UniProtKB/TrEMBL annotation:
Keywords: Hydrolase. GO terms for molecular function: hydrolase activity. NCBIfam families: HAD-SF-IA-v1, HAD-SF-IA-v2. It comes from Variovorax beijingensis. InterPro entries: HAD-like_sf, HAD-SF_hydro_IA, HAD_sf, PGP-like_dom2, S-2-haloacid_dehalogenase. It holds the Pfam family Hydrolase. This is HAD family hydrolase. The keyword Hydrolase applies.
Length: 224
């Protein structure tokens, strides 16, 4: 759900807006992919192939097509992508995600920037139970992250400059995009992914979201 009301101005040292990766930073999509694949090893293989296709294609190709292509490549039956779609409403939030969002909502604008179709992106965003100011999917932006255009579209809709915003990433690939746009980044690396070769460092990397609120609280001088 997107929030159409006038957001409260940023308080204290918080940024004016915080943008989030959705399917890895806030939601545990790994569990759902593994269940749809029938096992964790097959789910990981399928997800890795999907990510390779996504980060390689740039301009938007229907998300569901990439999911099906990746499933076929790793030898999964045609029923696996449909099972993933059927389980989409079961996506669980990582521990600390809803608490972080609720703490931030009175202080900052909140947005999602996700590599997903509009249909599935909206369904996933609703799993967090808050009113988002902006939800940007790759389908709407016309490009997949880490192309800078999805991040820029979110900033444009928020009416916020890159230096006034922060990004909470779920994948090391996001750092290519956030660095190019000028977004300071916290990498919630819950599953211990390796940083992609050549990817810029995040300002903070952590296996949990616990450090995100203290980081955001001191994002800028309180007098700003």
């Amino acid at each position: 759900m997107q929030n159409t009301s006038t957001p409260i101005a940023a308080a204290g040292g918080y940024p004016r807006a915080v943008l989030f990766d959705l399917l890895t930073a806030l939601l545990d999509s790994w569990t759902v992919w593994n269940a749809a694949a029938g096992s964790e090893p097959m789910g990981r293989s399928w997800r890795a192939e999907y990510l390779r296709l996504t980060y390689g294609c740039g301009a938007y190709v229907p998300y569901e097509d990439l999911v099906r292509q990746a499933a076929a490549t790793v030898g999964l039956p045609a029923s696996a992508p449909q099972s993933l779609d059927d389980r989409w409403g079961e996506l669980p939030a990582w521990s600390g995600a809803t608490e972080l969002l609720r703490a931030l909502q009175p202080r900052c604008k909140l947005a999602v920037v996700t590599n997903c179709s509009r249909r599935l992106g909206q369904r996933a965003a609703e799993r967090l139970g808050i009113d988002w100011d902006v939800v940007v999917t790759s389908e709407e932006a016309g490009f997949y992250k880490p192309d800078p255009r999805p991040y820029r579209l979110a900033l444009e809709r928020l009416d916020v400059q890159p230096g006034e915003a922060a990004f909470v990433a779920g994948s090391g690939y996001d750092m290519f995009g956030t660095a190019s746009v000028g977004l300071r980044t916290y990498w919630h690396n819950r599953v211990g992914l390796a940083r992609p070769e050549g990817a810029p460092l995040a300002e903070v990397e952590s296996p949990t979201l616990e450090g995100a609120l203290p980081w955001l609280r001191t994002f800028r001088p309180a007098a700003c």
